[in-house]
Amino acid sequence: MATTSSIFGETETRPGQEMPAAQKGQDRAMEAKQDNPSASPGKVCNISFDEHGDVILVLPSPDSTGTARFQVNSSVLCLASPVFRAMLGPDSAFKEAKALAAISTDPTRPPLELSLDDDPNAFAIILRIIHLQFDWVPTTRPIDEGILYKMAIACDKYDMKLALKYWFKKWTSVIGDSSLPLPVQKMQGPRWLFMAYAFAHETLFSELSLQLILQCHVNKAGQLYLPNVKNGKLDNFIPQPVKDAISAARQQTLEAFFDCVHRQLEQYISTTGSPVLKCHFQHESCDAMNLGLLILEFRRLNVYPEASAVHNRSVMEVKQHLEGLRFPSHITLNKAVGACCDAPEFRECHTGGSYCLQCVTCKSCGRRYKPAVSLCNHAPHCSPVPKFKEELQKIVDQVKGLDYSQYSRDKKHASTQVPPHTDLWNVVQYT
Prior knowledge:
40% helix, single chain, 5-stranded mixed beta sheet, 3-stranded antiparallel beta sheet, 12 strands, alpha/beta
């Protein structure tokens, strides 16, 4: 049986089987129409996923020049998809279900035709999986991200995550295997987040949501997007609660950064009583100099007194921007200036009198002491920059990805829930 990269232009049956009579009749009708160009529907692809299938799914090609006709089993559709079960199941009140019931009592009737607007190539892979035709399921790299994304749209639309999530995990493990000689594809950006959501890959969903929290920018329209990534905008297929949570987590992280900026200044300013000196050598002039330098630097970085200029940038860009805080490598002050008489680095005057020209008088208690001969570099001891950078990193480390269970629309039935500590190798229990 011939195959090409596109399913259109072929009439396909599974090896060793004959096309069902009903489908042959449809093929002849199609051929008759093709004899008349004005009535031609374009190229047609017929694939039988079940030779006794009671439903034919009709899907237009992406360019609307062809039509795919998939013969499938309605029971398989209902088992894999609650959406199809609601439409075609035995308890359904839809007209399609009533038509199927009539077909089941009269085998001479042709299969029920249902028109769908999904991508035929993507939907064909889904149908292969749920009809247990695994030899026809692609597993080699590179994975076609475009087809996989369209499969995710259909998976989410028809709620097929339970039937397909194993395969998505298998495909993503192939992508992430760097030991293979083929180039490794990257799983990043909003499209992959939606695929992780649609196929219920909880771990990947959390990782990718964290990536977006830390790396998303905001455009002029207030929309989140990931720069330098194809299809970087958070599209409409991602549920709004997920987008809102990513936006909120991003904003909270930025606010934590800016709070950290203000704390750096407030530590040198006392609103009540005497300020607590931060200088390692207890110099008021050192603290005053640090405060002035910080204000100048934060103004240069456009994050003080307010930071609206950087609000649209990503969390990681703002962190890197703040880490660009410049501070002198040398802040030289005489140890005697404003020194405390109890400082151990200052020796008492060897004469004890007021006539020694090498000593000075402490401004606090009047004690005479001998100051250091050399000047002291305060920068290695008093610079606020190292602690500031540590606080920024702690803020980033505390950011977590979203919890998939909080956003899943999946309502598990009691029959699908596995009780804790269940031995899955021995589930048949006799009573």
